[in-house]
Amino acid sequence: DPYTTVIVLAVITTVYSASSGLWGVVVTDLLLFVAAMVGSIAAAYYALNLPEIGGLEGLISHPQIAGRLSILPDFSDWGTTVMVFIIPLAVQWWSVWYPGAEPGGGGYVAQRMLAARDEKNALLATLWFNIAHYAIRPWPWIIVALCSLIVYPDFESIREAFPRIDPSIIGHDLAYPAMLVFLPNGLLGLVLVSLAAAYMSTISTHLNWGSSYIVDDFYRRFVRNDASDRHYVLVARISTVFLIIFASILSLWLENALQAFQILLQIGAGTGLIFILRWFWWRINAWSELSAMVISFLVAVYFQFIHQSLGFQPLHGSLNLLIGVGITTAGWLLVTFLTPPADRETLVAFYEQIRPMGPGWKAVVGDREPLEGESMAASFLCWLLGVAAVYGFVFGTGYLLYGFFIWGLLLVAIAVGCAAYILKLLPRVGLR
Whole-angstrom Cα distance, residue 416 to residue 316? Predict the structure, then answer.
């Protein structure tokens, strides 16, 4: 039942996260990633070998799947096109914060980058994370999802296959676990472990990240700044326990995974731009970031709990997102100009440590010459090449799986070339 599942996994994850800290989280994440990939690939293999699927060729040619393999959406379905294509390309990538994909970087990725041996290793590890996260990890899940459209074409077929399941939990996200019944027992256990591993690696990262905020950014600064390291570690462990309790309660309240995804996007709507501009514009201050996070959270609460209770019709998720981006961006810009900037000494120290590039810092440092190897053009070129490399691997892998070998090999070759050129450009962005 949901309560037992949540409590058991929460306790196990909390114990090793609280006892080992970042080191334990990073090491176990590596092992959990391997377990998750082995389990998901095994699930895809057995799903493809079902008689009604007939392997990859049978899957691709099945009439139930034929219209669902296009990389581009159906532009006649304007609602879906806006949600999955136009808004992500035009708005979402720069405006919305999401764990692991923070525009301009964030604590989720930074805690791993700061633990790397040096800046070059941090950059390469982040590039590998994006390739593994977007190009490798999703495809076994996608294949199982496509197979489920044939085996369980509608909700009624799931109800018939599992008559004892509570009808209230039958939804789109039940199709994946419904496919697992075709696995042999031993392998079924491995796949269940892989699902638990995916949960545990994500939760442990958030617990470690959240407790670091509570201790370093709040408790140490405003409550007690003269305690020993042992004391702060204890506070971090207590914070970890309270965070998992809150997360468990929230997870039991949510109805499906899509709801959690939409809430996260709405909470982060409008904060992304500030996380980019803080590296290029000296005027961003602490109040800018705090106001952005508070405003976006309040807007998310309004749309989730208040809007419909006032008698208004629910809005499309994409429209909620755009409204949230607009309100939050206007709010933090107003707060930025109404509050004083950080003092000059802090700004100069930040500049000397981080070396932000571009004209946005001239008001602070004047026409100071950039350091050797600092090239803003090369940095932006690396960014574009990184995006091309990740997308090349994503779609190249997909084309190879779908049997379109020429397109697949071409895109993978482009991705490899982009990654190789990034390595060549590293000295021009100060990394040797």
Answer: 39
